[in-house]
Structures are given as structure tokens and as C-alpha cells.
Design goal:
Blueprint: E1 2-7, H1 15-26, E2 32-35, H2 47-52, H3 56-67, E3 70-74, H4 84-93, E4 103-108, H5 115-126, E5 130-131, E6 137-138, H6 146-167
The chain binds flavin mononucleotide.
Length: 168
Amino acid sequence: MHLLALSGSLRAGSFNTSALRALQKLAPKGVVITPDESIGALPHFNPDVEMSELPEIVAALRQQVAAADGLVIACPEYAHGIPGSFKNALDWLVGSTDFPGKPVMLINIAPRASHAQAALHEVLTTMSARIVHEAGVTVDMRDADAMYGLQAGLSAFVKACKGARVSV
Ligand SMILES: Cc1cc2nc3c(=O)[nH]c(=O)nc-3n(C[C@H](O)[C@H](O)[C@H](O)COP(=O)(O)O)c2cc1C
């Protein structure tokens, strides 16, 4: 099984990216979690560009999404919303025919932040992603038991993705 990890932060020392890296190490046998590395380099979304010639980097991101059994998203909150660079990536994925129905696990590493998570739920649901609610985790990465929370979420997510494969 192949999962694609998408971080909503471009910061080198990002806690969200580090949660995704931790998840990679927690992955059970047979599950590979690959980090996306394109989000910071995507051009600004423009429907005219999308309709004329899809930039190679966008086509590659869509291909990665298509090939993944599920998406794991860890995204910070900026000014009570989704960071612009991450929303930009989601906007490029609206036109992906493979996005609808894609299982999504949401990780929130800031228990005090709820606006961005709510916005992500709204946007992803509008894009017809299949948010796996039982896999969603809110963990404080400074807590000793954060890894248990991530592991439990991943385990529920892998189970849901396996179910999705069977029902396709
Ligand atoms: C521009 C900016 C706006 C932020 N706005 C919020 C906010 O509205 N609510 C909140 O809880 N944290 C906010 N934060 C804090 C970030 O969510 C926090 O630093 C988080 O760890 C950033 O994620 P990262 O470590 O993965 O880069 C903001 C940070 C920045 C840089």
C-alpha cells in the first residue's frame, strides 16, 4: 500500500512535516509513505493555465495522487485559515479526476487550532475526498504519547484504505 504525505508547511523545521516523517517510521510492513516535495514550487493556480497547458509539476502531483491509495495531510493554521500555499495545491487538485473518493487522513498537531481543520474538512469534502474520520488525529508533538496517537490514526487509516481497495 502506498500513501502520499502532504505537509501544509514549507518551513524547514515544521512540526507538521516532522509528524509526517514520524508517521513514515511508524508505517507497518507493506505500507510505504512517500512525502510530496512539490507544494512549495507549484505556480499560483490559474484556471487559464490549467485549461491550456498543465505545468509539468502539477501533472506530476496529480500523478502522485492518482497512484496513492490514500493521502495523509498535516497542515498548520495560519490566521485562522489554511496556509495559502497549501490551499493553492488543493486548488490545482480540484481538476484531478483521481481526487474524488480518495481516502484522506488528517493530522492536527496544534490542539488549540480548530479553524484550519474545519476549513480543511469543508474544502476536502467539497472536493469529494473521503475523509476517514476515525483516522483523524490531534496530537501535541511535545507530548510523550504523541507517537501512540499517530500510530493509532495510521492503523485506522490503513484499515480504511484496504477496505476502499476491496470495494473498488
Ligand atoms: C503567519 C502565521 C499565522 C499563524 N496563525 C495561527 C492561528 O491562527 N492559529 C494558531 O493556532 N496558530 C497560528 N500560527 C502558529 C502556527 O500554526 C504554528 O507555528 C505551527 O507550528 C506552524 O506549523 P509548522 O511548525 O508545521 O510550520 C500562525 C503562524 C504563522 C507563521
